[in-house]
TrEMBL record:
<keyword id="KW-0479">Metal-binding</keyword>
<keyword id="KW-1133">Transmembrane helix</keyword>
<dbReference type="InterPro" id="IPR017972">
    <property type="entry name" value="Cyt_P450_CS"/>
</dbReference>
<keyword id="KW-0349">Heme</keyword>
<keyword id="KW-0732">Signal</keyword>
<protein>
    <recommendedName>
        <fullName>Cytochrome P450</fullName>
    </recommendedName>
</protein>
<comment type="similarity">
    <text>Belongs to the cytochrome P450 family.</text>
</comment>
<keyword id="KW-0472">Membrane</keyword>
<dbReference type="GO" id="GO:0020037">
    <property type="term" value="F:heme binding"/>
</dbReference>
<dbReference type="GO" id="GO:0016020">
    <property type="term" value="C:membrane"/>
</dbReference>
<dbReference type="Pfam" id="PF00067">
    <property type="entry name" value="p450"/>
</dbReference>
<dbReference type="InterPro" id="IPR036396">
    <property type="entry name" value="Cyt_P450_sf"/>
</dbReference>
<dbReference type="InterPro" id="IPR002401">
    <property type="entry name" value="Cyt_P450_E_grp-I"/>
</dbReference>
<dbReference type="InterPro" id="IPR001128">
    <property type="entry name" value="Cyt_P450"/>
</dbReference>
<dbReference type="GO" id="GO:0005506">
    <property type="term" value="F:iron ion binding"/>
</dbReference>
<feature type="binding site" description="axial binding residue">
    <location>
        <position position="420"/>
    </location>
    <ligand>
        <name>heme</name>
    </ligand>
</feature>
<keyword id="KW-0408">Iron</keyword>
């Protein structure tokens, strides 16, 4: 009897350990991590470039359910989606989930950008960016933005019979960033900046293999060149502040250099300024150019919506004197045009998805998200949910007039405390650009309306269009 009791005492702990291990393993989300380092990265990137990423994710949902594990860009990852997932990610305590991106994004854009920070650091940097990017500050720059857009159209659109929209919109958004955010005028320096910047962003979403032939490696090298250029800009702005007493609000870099706390100490380090300048550049360049491009695309294939936008914008144009710039009050009248922009963001979100990092073991929807794992979410999965947006494939700007969108369902700009600080800048440049495009030109698509992602959406052939100038009095040339 004593021997049997001793055996039981020996076996019970082993049994408990084994059963606990089995219970724990069942709590991990279903799915496979795939090949080490590579995992499912190549499959996702291929799906994005063939515009089948939504189907790729839907297939995972059908196979594994709303929560599944995989490996992306060198890290074990849990994929979640939907309104509850968005709310969880955008509102999680900074001790639970951090805003850490993939290694490729972090290495190329830096580890002190707002997209990497959490808690107090995130709030500090966000508040600093909003000093320049909040509506109250941007009001004074509407005229300057309008001037840049007119210059662009006169240089690249007027007297042309055909243009390719996406590359031109990228030139426009880059010039707006350089002019308004960095006070960097046109010339060889800006051209060199653009060349290095375009090389840098090619590998932002990539497998982090630092080999000579990879996009990731080429982007890393370009990133170092861009950082050095930004540092030169910062040094020049700092000297002007010290020697000439430059206005702290003349551009974003000068604004960030000027910020002090209650003790008179600098709020941002130079590294944080460099990294956040790069983040703002990428966000403003990639997402805004895609948004304006796809608005043009949808207006090409939706004649009734195009007519409504033209009517709204021509009423504003008729209220202006010849050569008079747009104002903040004019932008406020562009309500229908912004609904068109919102519907464009819903159907073709410039940001396909994003990443977070679990800082500790997390219970979510009955599963364990282990400490250190990535969490991947995709905006399009919510934007195309029939329970939230009836007939989601239909392009319908009027849906925003019928009833408000539930919280954390439209997440083109993020949500909660994580909402993009540059959303107001994007709204202004989009509305101003569309105003001049529809009042000065009409156009016709010269390619099919398909698109791919790399990682932002790219229409077929860059969206070539035939353009016809309207018989209106053009603004004065510059």
């Amino acid at each position: 009897m004593n021997a049997l009791f001793a055996i039981l005492l020996f076996l019970i702990p082993i049994f408990l350990i084994l059963t606990r291990g089995r219970r724990s393993s069942k709590r991990y989300p279903p799915g496979s991590l795939g090949i080490p380092i590579v995992g499912q990265s190549i499959g996702l990137l291929r799906a994005m470039r063939s515009n089948t990423a939504d189907k790729w994710l839907q297939h995972r949902v059908m196979k594994y359910g709303p929560v599944s594990k995989l490996s992306l860009f060198g890290k074990p990852t849990v994929f979640i989606y939907g309104q509850a997932a968005n709310k969880f990610l955008f509102n999680s305590d900074s001790s639970t989930v951090s805003n850490q991106q993939t290694e490729s994004i972090r290495m190329i854009l830096g580890d002190r950008g707002i997209q990497e920070l959490s808690g107090g650091d995130h709030k500090r940097v966000r508040d600093a960016l909003l000093l320049f990017l909040k509506p109250e500050s941007l009001k004074q720059y509407v005229g300057k933005m309008d001037e840049e857009i007119r210059k662009h159209l006169q240089m690249h659109w007027q007297d042309k019979q055909q243009v390719t929209v996406l590359p031109l919109m990228k030139i426009l958004t880059f010039n707006l960033i350089c002019s308004l955010l960095f006070d960097l005028e046109q010339g060889t320096r800006r051209d060199k900046f653009l060349e290095c910047f375009q090389q840098m962003i090619e590998g932002i979403w990539s497998v982090p293999l630092k080999l000579p032939f990879t996009r990731y490696n080429r982007s890393l090298k370009a990133s170092m060149r861009v950082r050095n250029m930004v540092k030169e800009l910062i040094n020049e702005k700092r000297k002007k502040l010290e020697q000439e007493g430059a206005s702290p609000r003349q551009d974003l870099i000068t604004c960030m250099l000027s910020i002090r706390n209650e003790d008179g100490e600098k709020v941002l380090t130079e590294k944080e300024i460099v990294h956040n300048v790069m983040v703002v550049m990428v966000a403003g360049y990639e997402t805004s150019s895609a948004l304006i491009t796809f608005i043009i695309r949808f207006l090409s294939i939706e004649p009734a919506i195009y007519a409504a936008v033209v009517q709204e914008q021509e009423e504003i144009a008729r209220s202006k004197q010849l050569g008079e710039f747009l104002t903040w009050e004019d932008l406020a009248k562009m309500k229908y045009t912004w609904k068109v922009a919102m519907e464009t963001l819903r159907v073709v979100p410039p940001v396909f998805g994003g990443f977070r990092k679990a800082l500790k073991d997390i219970e979510y929807d009955g599963y364990l998200i282990p400490k250190g794992w990535q969490i991947f979410w995709a905006s399009s999965m919510t934007h195309m949910d029939t329970s939230i947006f009836p007939e989601p494939s239909k392009f319908d700007p009027s849906r925003y007039e019928k009833q408000p969108v539930p919280p954390y369902c439209f997440v083109a700009f993020g949500g909660g405390p994580r909402i993009c600080p540059g959303n107001e800048f994007a709204r202004i440049e989009t509305l101003a650009a569309i105003h001049h495009l529809v009042t000065q030109f009409s156009w016709k698509l010269l390619a099919d309306d398909s698109f791919s992602r790399d990682p932002t959406p790219v229409p077929a052939q860059g969206l070539p269009v035939q353009i016809m100038p309207k018989k209106t009095t053009l603004p004065p040339k510059y």
